[in-house]
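SEQUENCE-TO-STRUCTURE ENTRY
===========================
What this section holds: a protein sequence and its matching fold, both as plain text.
Tokens: labelled as protein backbone structure tokens, with as many entries as the chain has residues.
Question of interest: how does this chain fold, as expressed in backbone structure tokens?
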Amino acid sequence: DAPDGTPALPDAPNVYVPTGKPGGRAPHVWLNNDVSLFDTFGFEWTLLQLGPQPISAEPFVLAAKQIGIDLKVVACSHEEAFDLYESDCVLIRPDQIIAWRRLNLTNFEAHAVLATATGHDLSQK
């Protein structure tokens, strides 16, 4: 997981604190009466685009193809999800753990984010 400069999560096996920080389990949000945000996740990697004006997923889609990983893109404008994750772009691992999130004004390179999160060689672009 890629640290984002925020304090580490408390490490208590019997206490769950919903947070959007990398290393934490993705917070649950009901999108409507029948659908949970978890229901929209892919079986492999999921890129959450959150908020009313999410960033483009295209750099991540291209990087995922180059690296050879399955990536599902989920756009969610639900305000509660945006507030819980505290980001407009979040990468979720297949085990529903947050691998990375973009903080406001954070520069990033999609290929480097995916390569680091999946353990691929950064030089193979």
